[in-house]
Specification:
Blueprint: H1 2-7, H2 13-18, H3 27-40, H4 43-58, H5 60-68, H6 73-84, E1 89-93, E2 98-100, E3 103-105, E4 110-114, H7 115-118, H8 154-170, E5 173-177, E6 182-183, E7 192-194, E8 197-201
Antiparallel strand pairs: 1-4, 2-3, 5-8, 6-7
The protein binds protoporphyrin IX containing FE (HEM).
Protoporphyrin IX containing FE (HEM) binds at residues 36-37, 40-41, 44-45, 48, 81, 86-87, 90, 143-145, 149-153, 156-157.
């Protein structure tokens, strides 16, 4: 931390943070925020990247569409994040009574917000189980949550996946899944424990 502070402004994340208003935080607040960012950005982006490999492997017609039309990459990024939904849900505690489309919620109730289910809502997304790289409303997904706690790293996450797809396209590289992946057993992180892939040229 001190090293980055003394080195002056630089484009890496830690330097950007230490030379931002976060510099007024004490060491514990700074470390707490740093850990939150590391944890928040770990399983999520990693599993979106694996989701990209598995999704395009599962839908070869979409893979071909993307390989022939790299300008679809920005939209495909949103669609990968929708289709994968790396965090299945978050939980909130209701602060006051509310009527949610006819479902009564009482103050103190614990509410599970299933992003994974919302992203498969067939009244919003046609053929929701399919990854469609040029899906017109892909950006309506709820993978980053909604409202005041919406993911603070959303733009960074999109950028990371976009760079991955662009660099793969530049090299004309395709990941081929060579064995059924092993999934994480749990209802929070919706991801993969392992996925064997090999790369080929197209
Ligand atoms: C595809 C990748 C990602 C997904 C799907 C994702 C998803 C989420 C979700 C669902 C939330 C909770 C929203 C809520 O409580 O309403 C969240 C919060 C958060 N995310 Fe992400 N995230 C991703 C990437 C990242 C990255 C790259 C970072 C940091 C570098 C990050 C940092 C955070 C932090 C710090 C919060 C807490 C924000 C708050 O409570 O105010 N996330 N994320």
């Amino acid at each position: 931390m001190d090293e980055r502070k003394n080195r002056g402004e630089a484009p890496d994340l830690i330097s950007r943070m230490i030379h931002s208003p976060m510099k007024d935080m004490n060491q514990f607040e700074y470390m707490g925020n740093l850990i939150l960012l590391i944890v928040g950005g770990n399983d999520t982006t990693r599993n979106s990247m694996s989701g990209y490999a598995y999704g395009l492997h599962s839908f070869q017609d979409e893979r071909e569409k993307l390989e022939k039309n790299p300008e679809l990459i920005p939209n495909a990024v949103s669609e990968v994040i929708r289709w994968q939904t790396p965090l299945a849900h978050m939980r909130r505690t209701a602060l006051k009574d509310h009527d949610l489309f006819g479902a009564p919620i009482k103050a103190g109730d614990k509410i599970g917000m299933w992003y994974l289910s919302a992203n498969r809502d067939e009244t919003v997304f046609d053929n929701p189980d399919k990854l469609i790289v040029d899906r017109e409303n892909a950006r309506r997904h709820l993978s980053f949550g909604y409202g005041i706690h919406r993911c603070v790293g959303a733009r960074l996450a999109e950028l990371q996946i976009r760079v991955l797809l662009e660099e793969m396209a530049k090299r004309r590289l395709r990941p081929n899944v060579v064995a059924e992946p092993v999934r994480v057993a749990g209802c929070f992180v919706h991801g993969y424990r392992s996925m064997d892939v090999e790369l080929s040229k197209y």
